[in-house]
């Protein structure tokens, strides 16, 4: 089969890590006989510099015509003084919204081999960690009414019942294939939108009597993640809470450079991106961990193309490389560490 993939490298470490994911996909292509056709398009700071807009029309068109999108990361200090609508990050939000990608699946899995990179005490993560964060991606405070009016500014957190219902549905479906527990995270003790969230999740839960449901306030959830992360199976939450909790969860697995994500809608189509940003502090140094992006490519093979075996092949190669002690700077305990390209060499060799 031939698959068309739109590539948005983005800013900072974006190009370095996407290049590594492409190398891995090309190696899979050779081994498995599939054909991946890549088309590079611009978004974010790179698009602002080249074309004066954060999301050129052509980028959106190519993304829509493709079978899937891979994105590195967008943003950086160079564009931080731009107004909200003009910033690189707005391109990512527009892409998610325009492509209807309301479900952001962020698995936080701790590889056994990386237990020593976890900052928590051994007994807290003994036996590993395997959580999936299901984050609502096209609603909430990111897309509510907003304005700056002189010395006053606001961003409204708004949710429609249908928006909560469809993401809850996703979370319960995922839980059914796992340990059958959903922890819904909100701030229902304070926010109206969270009370609607909780009521809607309860309604959806009735359709899944086998799944245990629990509701936590987000402040408690943040605390529980470091005190007893193993209690979680699927965490279902809104756009902003999910953004924050997934960075926290990533660090428990060893580094933010490890966590992939899939942003999907009703169909198989999706955008695949690491959860981290453009890491301007290490950009251009061949130092970034490409594993989050490589695992995002693996998620693309599984979610968008149905290539389960090939997806597992990439995951296993990553595990094998880590088992061999190969590590980038963010997870290395030694003075020495591998570069972005070198760790990818090891992963490709392990395929
Ligand atoms: P960040 O995730 O870019 O970086 C936070 C820290 O993690 C930095 O110290 C960085 O060096 C480190 N880090 C991140 N990815 C890494 C990797 N693969 N390997 C090793 N270390 C890694 O977050 P930030 O500094 O808050 O944001 C920087 C820019 O990225 C901002 O402009 C922000 O808006 C943007 N951003 C974009 C996305 C995205 O495009 N999906 C996501 C988050 C942040
Ligand atoms: C992420 C990022 C984005 C978000 C920003 C860059 C818009 O932090 O993908 O986690 O907040 O969703
Ligand atoms: Mn984020």
TrEMBL record:
The record ties this protein, via Gene3D superfamilies, to: Isopropylmalate Dehydrogenase (3.40.718.10)
Provide the function of this protein.
Catalyzes the oxidation of 3-carboxy-2-hydroxy-4-methylpentanoate (3-isopropylmalate) to 3-carboxy-4-methyl-2-oxopentanoate. The product decarboxylates to 4-methyl-2 oxopentanoate.
Cellular component aspect of the GO annotation: cytosol
Positions that bind NAD(+): 76-89, 277-289
Alphabetical GO biological process terms: L-leucine biosynthetic process
Residue(s) at site: Important for catalysis: 142, 187
Q: What is the lineage of its organism?
A: Bacteria, Bacillati, Bacillota, Tissierellia, Dethiosulfatibacter
In the UniProt record, does the keyword Metal-binding occur? yes
Q: Which cofactors does it use?
A: Mg(2+); Mn(2+)
Return one GO MF term: 3-isopropylmalate dehydrogenase activity
Which reactions fall under this protein's catalytic activity? (2R,3S)-3-isopropylmalate + NAD(+) = 4-methyl-2-oxopentanoate + CO2 + NADH
| Entry keyword set | Amino-acid biosynthesis, Branched-chain amino acid biosynthesis, Cytoplasm, Leucine biosynthesis, Magnesium, Manganese, Metal-binding, NAD, Oxidoreductase
**Binding of substrate, residues:** 96, 106, 135, 219
Quaternary structure, per UniProt, is: Homodimer.
Note whether Transmembrane helix occurs among the keywords.
no
Kindly provide the name given to this protein in its UniProt entry. 3-isopropylmalate dehydrogenase
Paste the cofactor note.
Binds 1 Mg(2+) or Mn(2+) ion per subunit.
Q: What's the top EC group for this one?
A: oxidoreductase
- Could you say which EC number(s) this protein's record lists? 1.1.1.85
Query: Which of this chain's residues are annotated to bind Mg(2+)?
Result: 219, 243, 247
Q: Which domain of life is it from?
A: Bacteria
Q: Which family does it belong to?
A: Belongs to the isocitrate and isopropylmalate dehydrogenases family. LeuB type 1 subfamily.
Pathway of action: Amino-acid biosynthesis; L-leucine biosynthesis; L-leucine from 3-methyl-2-oxobutanoate: step 3/4
Q: In what residue span(s) does the Isopropylmalate dehydrogenase-like domain sit?
A: 4-347
């Amino acid at each position: 089969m031939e698959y068309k993939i739109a590539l948005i490298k983005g800013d900072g470490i974006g190009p370095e890590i996407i290049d590594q994911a492409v190398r891995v996909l090309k190696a899979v292509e050779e081994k498995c006989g599939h054909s991946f056709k890549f088309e590079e398009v611009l978004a974010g700071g790179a698009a602002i510099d080249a074309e004066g807009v954060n999301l050129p029309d052509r980028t959106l068109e190519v993304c829509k015509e493709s079978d899937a999108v891979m994105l590195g990361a967008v943003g950086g200090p160079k564009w931080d003084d731009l107004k909200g609508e003009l910033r690189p990050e707005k391109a990512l939000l527009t892409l998610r919204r325009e492509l209807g990608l309301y479900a952001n699946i962020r698995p936080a899995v701790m590889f056994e081999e990386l237990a020593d990179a976890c900052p928590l005490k051994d007994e807290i993560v003994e036996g590993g960690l395997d959580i999936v964060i299901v984050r609502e991606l096209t609603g909430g405070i990111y897309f509510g009414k907003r304005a700056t009016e002189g010395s006053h500014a606001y961003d409204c957190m708004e949710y429609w019942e249908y928006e909560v219902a469809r993401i809850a549905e996703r979370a319960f479906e995922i839980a059914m294939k796992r340990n059958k527990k959903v922890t819904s995270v909100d701030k229902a003790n304070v926010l109206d939108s969270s009370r609607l969230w909780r009521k809607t999740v309860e309604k959806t839960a009735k359709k899944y009597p086998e799944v245990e449901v629990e509701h936590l306030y987000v402040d408690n959830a943040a605390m529980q993640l470091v005190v007893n992360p193993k209690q979680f199976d699927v965490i279902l939450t809104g756009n902003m809470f999910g953004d924050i909790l997934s960075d926290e969860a990533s660090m428990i697995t060893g580094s933010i450079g490890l966590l992939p994500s899939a942003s999907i809608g009703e169909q198989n189509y999706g955008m695949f991106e690491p959860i981290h940003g453009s890491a301007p502090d290490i950009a251009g140094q061949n130092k970034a961990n490409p594993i989050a992006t490589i695992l995002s490519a693996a998620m693309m093979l599984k979610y968008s193309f149905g290539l389960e075996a090939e997806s597992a092949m990439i995951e296993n190669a990553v595990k094998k490389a880590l088992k061999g002690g190969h590590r980038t700077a963010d997870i290395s305990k030694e003075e020495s560490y591998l570069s972005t390209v070198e760790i990818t060499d090891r992963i490709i060799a392990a395929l």
